[in-house]
Automatic annotation (TrEMBL):
Protein name per Swiss-Prot or TrEMBL: Fibrinogen-like YCDxxxxGGGW domain-containing protein
Comp. bias regions, Low complexity: 1-91
Superkingdom to which the source organism belongs: Bacteria
Coiled-coil region: none
Record region (Disordered): 1-109
Annotated organism of origin: Nannocystis bainbridge
Fibrinogen C-terminal domain boundaries: 263-329
Keyword terms: Disulfide bond, Repeat, Signal
NCBIfam families to which the protein is assigned, alphabetical: GGGWT_bact, myxo_disulf_rpt
Amino acid sequence: MTSATETGTGTETTTVETTTGTPTEATTAPTTSTSTVPTDGSASGDATSSSSLSTTTDAETTTTTSTTDTTTTTGTTSTTDGETTSTSTTDGPPPVCGDGQVEGDEACDDGNDDNTDTCVEGCQNASCGDGFVGPGEACDDGNEVDADDCNNDCAPASCGDGAIQVGEACDDGNAIDTDACLSTCAAASCGDGFVHAGVETCDDGNADDTDACTTLCAPPSCQDGIESGAESDVDCGGPDCAPCELAEGCEQGSDCGSGSCDQNQCVVSASCKAIKQAQPNAANGLYTIDADGAGPGASFEVWCDMTTDGGGWALAIRFAPAQGTFDFYSPHWTTVTVVNEALKSPTDTLDGKFQAYNVLPGGEIRGCMQHPVTKAYACKSYALPGTTTLLDLFKNTPVGSDIAMKGLYFNEAQAEKVKWLTIQGRTLAEASIAPMYIATGINIDDDQSCYDARVRFGLVLNNENNINTLNDAAGFGAQSYYTSGCDVAPGVDAPWRTPSGFAAGPMIYNTAGHIWIR
């Protein structure tokens, strides 16, 4: 049988072990007994000594008693006949979270495992950031990241919370749509429909540059670098911007600096009138025009009068002040010949007939004559029955009288008719007769008698009340009667004539002059 007793107090434990048994082998001879006695006289020894007694006799068993001291922390263990009893002694049990008692390091202990109330796992007071959605919290993700779905104040991420989350370009925490961040948490931009204060002038939220607000978020401008407002091309054309250059876009002639728009593209000007319409402040001078636009005809230079009588007049014929060649029956009236084409200035003193006469269509004709004293030019202008070139006008208008239903006559008051004299410094008193018949027009000729008065463009006078026996003429290609007999062959100019001036019987007054078309 083995018996062990362990006794401990505080921090010390003493163990005594006793073994009693029968040896496996008998001893028949006397043996020597050895006894060891502690030096201090103690039978059991102290905590640091051991005592061993061994006795052997004949037919007796051997008993060994051993005592060993060990050290442990707490408790007493006793073992008897194979049974063990353990007892532990401390200052008190540790606190238990969940027992309903606030102990030790516990901040709270509500005795439950509900983490949605005011006391959460670990017996700590609920707080934002503990990872549990507690009272007053909409979320709690347990981190300090403000850019995720739950803010650091345990409120769900939302536009307007002042923190930028995924999907937001900005978040300034206000509902103002005129600053740099909209109430939708999108960055302010042109086209969002809100006027960014100090940055945009307007914002209509559309991509239409032809309305009052462009895609630049500003009103249309002739310097904005886009085709805006009523412009026909970028920063040109329309009623507000400068005319467009050649090959730029147009809707009508006035959109182009050339005054001509063909298939929505600015082309070389068709006329001086077209240029004037496109450029109201255009100056007098030489311009390149192309009368038939995209047609086969070549462009050419023409002198344009842009300032008098509304402007837009093209010089067609220039008459020398004396000894000119454009008499009534000159072939230049009805052929495509040109004269002194390179000398296009209206002030040149030589005759000139230009390409504008032959190919430039117009609806108005104007005759200008120089005053002999002041040297100033004054003019008479007329609307034509239709658009025509001057070549076609003089070639196709039958030469003759109103009685024969020939010639082209202008219907105007007598005071206006007489201006054909006053513009060249002449009066009715200088006529060869006291007139009763006064008429103005194109290709007028007395075909009722053998009198030789006629005019290509201007005024005729007669002392009868009709054209019969016509006497005087003033204007261009003017002739007066030479004799009363039929002594001048048909188609032959009478000796009393002037290319430009007043033929009053034998009195011939020459002056410089021009014919223009518009």
